[in-house]
Amino acid sequence: MTSISTEPPRTALSWKLVPAVLLSVSGVLLFGVENNPVGYSVLALSIVTAALIDREFGRHLALVAAGMVIISLVPLNADLSIQHMALMGGALTLAVLVPWLLSRFIYGERVIKFPVNTGRKWPLSAKLYLLGVVALGYFILPGYLISTGVYQNWPDASDPTIFWRLFLGVNAVGIWDELFFICTTFTLLRRHFPDWLANILQAVIFSSFLWEIGYQAWGPLLTFPFALLQGYTFKLTKSLTYVVSVHLIFDFVLFLALVHAHNRDWLPIFLY
User: Which one of 48, 132, 140, 227 has the fewest CB atoms closer than 10 angstroms to its CB?
Assistant: First the structure.
């Protein structure tokens, strides 16, 4: 008996690639370049062309676009005032919640999921990878932050109040990254593209967002591979818990490196 492939035809993939690339480009324009008028235009063109090619594809790109538009409405920076944290926190929450609600209750789908209790134990390789993440962060982050001066994109945490707000903010954004870029964007794109291609497309938007957050200079050389690894890790583990653990461990090293960068005599554990 001849097996029937579930892969979409190559011609269909080729046509779908155009609006998907436009979606990723709009992320660069909205978050990397911060040109909202052009970014919104490219985003709208992406949704329209996707809908003309395939109705379901158009709906799925529209979900990602909805989240991107919500995020773009607030300044994405490390302002740690209560007002800004509340504003940005509300926008990030809606950017995840709106696509999920639309998908579940308007489209009647169960595509977007947040798998926490998977019932699977982490193998030794997964635990060793977490140690590797600590090592990579330790050797890369202080040198990147200090040599480029981008640590100044985050406030000095000398004040105890700022210290704990920075800690909260770094971790909250890290969790959100996985909810939106991996569990939402990557998951929706995987419905229409091979995993490797869907991963590249989400990583472009992911790293563009991180650029606006503060990872500038040669930061994309760090954030783009990280976004790819997170997508690939999620594909392997199917666990939000695990990819969030990876991200929070990396972000904890980032937090310590930021404190050290602003106050070099603090945390003399770093080599830089």
Answer: 132
